[in-house]
Amino acid sequence: MTLLLKLAMRGERVRSAAWILTVVMLGAGLVSYIQGYFTTPEALRAYARVISTNPIFLGLGGPVTEPSVGAMAAWRSGGLLFLLTAWMALTIVIRHTRAEEESGQQELMLSGAIHRAAPLTAALVIAAVTALLAGSLTSAVLIAVGMEAAGSLAYGAAITAAGWVFAAVGAVVAQLVRTARSATTLGLLVLGGSYVLRYAGDASGVSLLTWVSPLGWSHLVRPYAADRWWVLIVSLVATGLLLVLAYGLSARRDLDSGLLPVRPGPATGPCLKGPFSLAWRLQRGLLAKWAAGVTAAAALFAGLSGVAPRLAQQPGRVLEAFLQRYGGPSGDPVDAYLWIIVLLLAYTVALYPVLATLRLHQEEHSGHAEALLSTAVGRLRWAAAHLVLGALGTAALLALGGFVTGLVHTLSMDEPAVGRMLLAALEHVPAAWLVGACAAFAVAVLPRVSVALSWAVWGVVVVVGDLLGPLIGLWGWSRIEPFHYTPNTVSGEPFSGTPPAVILALTALLTTAALIRLRNRDLG
Amino acid sequence: MDDLISVAALTKSYGATRALDGLDLSVRAGEVHGFLGPNGAGKSTTIRILLGLIRATSGTVRLLGGDPWRQATELHRRLAYVPGDVTLWPTLTGGEVIDLLGRARGGLDQRRRAELMDRFELDPRKRSRTYSKGNRQKVALVAALSSRAELLILDEPTSGLDPLMEAAFTTSVAEEKRAGRTVLLSSHLLSEVEALCDRVTIVRSGRAVESGTLSDLRHLTRTSITADLAGRPGSLGDLPGVHNVLVENGRLTCQADPDALDGLLARLSAIGVRGLTCRPPSLEELFLRHYQEAAR
User: Are A273 and B103 inside 8 Å of each other by CB?
Assistant: First the structure.
């Protein structure tokens, strides 16, 4: 048991530390964010009023009954921190139970003098301790920056509780299905379902929905406002019951089997005709996930666009800088807000062609390409299939994001915006393609460092870009990234053909160089 | 010119390391050619050059009468390949992979596919992620064997198969040979090569050290002889080409070079023989001799 713990711990050290650090920094960061932007009690009260009247804001973190810095910070960060901690705990447990069982590692361990439930216990201990650290360190840091002690402790406990419940959920789903992938999917469904229930409950005020959601219990603690510690009893009891279930299931099944049957796949592949249909098959899952994410994010942000004019009525340096930067010729706060959504969409979606292109590297590295390229499929067709699908997917995601933003804005504000937003989003297609072309170049020319290099290119583009750059004080650096040259047509800047033409030419150049190199170098 | 594969003085360098060092190989149409050598001898590197996946540093390579690097795509229509370490797309089922590879090669014999699927007891509905090494190997084998390719390149195809499946593999390759196909079979299993191959090339450190039919190669080595003698043997050790002579209780064991057999047998019949066993040299001995020489 201690041996198993040590073994699992070694694999988790860095990852867990990164998770914990993220949670603690987000928790502390949002306190300073609230303190920085809402300097007076009036401003806080005004913010609280905005929240209480907008269902989307209510959904983000529940009602705000007390306009204190602590309560506001917990409102702002809670939803995210509970989700992160729950996800962390869930994945830790699956990684050290079902994933190890699937890879056969556990078979070797269990043939030693180790009880068959020991791996599950080891995984749960690590997840529980990580969640405990995330919660208690957040409490400690919040108290250290001057937040009220009781509220900070309650907040930390709520974070830990979310982790514990989902560690137990992870333990159960790991027993149910045979592969780590399906277990993760199942766990994600439970987590997503909990979030949606809680969101719906808080947004609509039907508190029953919040009460049936495991994530809801952590929210219902209402740190800094009510400090309802007793709600955590629900989390603890649920954790206990789930653990009893998990251990019961684990005692009842064979190694490397699940309780839910494995669904057999098709015996023939009539749709797999060549490199393009194969690339589509390999990329469609990624595209579907991105489409769901883009739709949800666009709808959420567009739904909040009603807040922009109300925020604009409050004077402040933030708003002025905001309007100046994103308002364009019209200077309209709503337009500025919509443009920010488009930028957010563009910088995020720019990662998609990178991931799609890196599939080429994975295919080469894993040996899959060797099997395909020993057939009549040539290298160019193989590479082109992935690149073309990545490019089309990028355009489709941007179009989808623009469309959804426009549609939700039209519905909620009664102001037609679909065409305008669609156009603004599609304007960014060439720049996103250029980021993807850099990845293609890296895969072809510098295969060994291609993954790191491709991510770095995207990272630099985002960090120096027009959205994040100013926030971290990097003014003017955005000139080196392509999105900077896209005119703000949302606020009435005229469209110009030159920037996209130049960017497309660069994209073509990099892609051509990549294809030439791919044709001439050794593979594998 | 009947050679489907002809390789001469082939070299491949990775920086300072030399994976191939002047390798020669010729595979004639219609034969099963064994490509023998331990891991790291350069078998897979040669095959990857033949497939146009990597480029030779120097030397000449002809495959099916073409240049495997420049005409890769068109030549690949006429061959099927089973890699040594089969990795498959984890989300595709075995059946889907077979159809994909078959179609990408330009066609699949559906009857042969069904027959092989049955023979190898392969469940085509399982996702590749859940296949064991042996099962992944079977998927690649079924895909290659049910193609209509004239040349099969198999890189250690039985390394994950159990003995029953190895037998199924042997049967299948024999059928391919009867159907007139040519097979390049890389292996380090001598029994497999002995059972299937017409000709053999043995590689060591990136170089072909021996090449020919099995009987050609046997000529190069010694026959083991055990004889129960009627009379006193006298001194047999002075005969040229007879080695490791040992006489115990009237039983003689020794090894003889091919051209010393005549003299030895004449001497033995003069002494009088009650029982005699001659064992031809096995590939194993041939193989070990080459590698022991290298070690010396």
Answer: yes
Angle between helices A149-176 and A69-96 (to 10 degrees): 30
Nearest to B125 among A267, A275, A371 (CB): A267
**Which amino acid is present at A455?**
W
Specify the DSSP class assigned to residue A494: P
B228: phi then psi, degrees, rounded to nearest 5: -90, 120
How would you classify the pairing of strands B242-248 and B251-256? antiparallel
Tens of pLDDT, residues A47-92: 788 777 776 677 777 888 778 888 888 888 878 899 999 999 999 9
Closest chain A C-alpha to B20 CA, distance in angstroms: 15
Count of alpha carbons within 13 angstroms of residue A107, beta-carbon side: 7
- Residues of B within 8 A of A373 (CB-CB) are 51-53, 72, 76
Instruction: Check if B96 contacts A (Cβ < 8 Å).
Output: yes
Hey, how many other C-beta atoms are within 10 angstroms of the C-beta on B134? 15
Beta bridge partners of B276: B227
pLDDT digits (tens, 9 = 90+) for A232-250: 999 999 999 999 999 998 8
Interface ipTM: 0.80
Per-residue pLDDT of chain B (296 residues; tens, 9 = 90+): 578 999 999 999 988 888 999 999 999 999 999 998 888 889 999 999 999 999 999 999 999 999 999 998 899 999 999 998 889 998 899 999 999 999 888 888 899 999 999 999 999 998 888 888 889 999 999 999 998 889 999 999 988 888 899 999 999 999 999 999 999 999 877 778 888 899 999 888 888 888 888 777 766 677 888 889 888 777 777 788 888 888 888 888 888 887 888 888 888 888 888 888 888 777 677 777 777 766 55
Query: Is B93 within 8 Å of A265 when comparing Cβ atoms?
Result: yes
- Whether the CB of B118 is below 8 Å from some CB of chain A: the reply is no
| DSSP β-bridge partners for residue B82 | B154
Query: Structure tokens of B13?
Result: 């360098």
Query: What do you get for the CA distance between the two ends of chain A, in Å?
Result: 40
Q: Residues of A near B (CB-CB distance < 8 A)?
A: 178-179, 181, 262, 264-270, 272-275, 278, 281-282, 285, 366-368, 370-379, 520, 522-524
A341, exposed or middle or buried, with CB in 10 Å at 0-12, 13-18, 19+? buried
A266 CA to centre of own chain: 32
Longest CA–CA span in chain B (Å) reads 73
The single-letter code of the amino acid at A377 is V
Residue A332 has which token pair? 């309209």
Measured in residues, chain A has a length of 524
Question: What is the four-CA torsion angle of A231, A236, A239, A241, rounded to 10 degrees?
Answer: -100
Residue A22: is it exposed, middle or buried by C-beta count within 10 angstroms (0-12/13-18/19+)? middle
- Interface check for B286 against chain A (CB to CB < 8 A): the answer is no
| Residue of A272, A278, A283, A372 for testing the chain B interface, max B β-carbons within 10 Å | A272
What is the dihedral angle through the alpha carbons of A375, A380, A385, A386, rounded to the nearest 10 degrees? 110
Q: Which residue in the block uniquely carries the two structure tokens 């004019």?
A: A309
Question: Which of A263, A375, A379 to substitute to test the interface with B, most B CBs within 10 Å?
Answer: A375
Which two tokens mark A217?
């219990």
Most A CBs within 10 A among B53, B76, B153, hence the mutation to make, goes to B53
Strand B182-187 and strand B151-155: the pairing is parallel
Ranges of H-type helices in B15-132 = 43-50, 72-76, 94-105, 110-119
**CB B105 to CB A375 under 8 A?**
yes
- Residues 6 or more apart whose Cβ sits within 8 Å of residue B223: B255, B256, B258, B261, B278, B279, B280, B281
Does residue A231 have a pLDDT over 80? Answer: yes
Whether pLDDT at A356 is above 90: yes
Query: How many other CB atoms are found less than 10 A from the CB of residue B77?
Result: 18
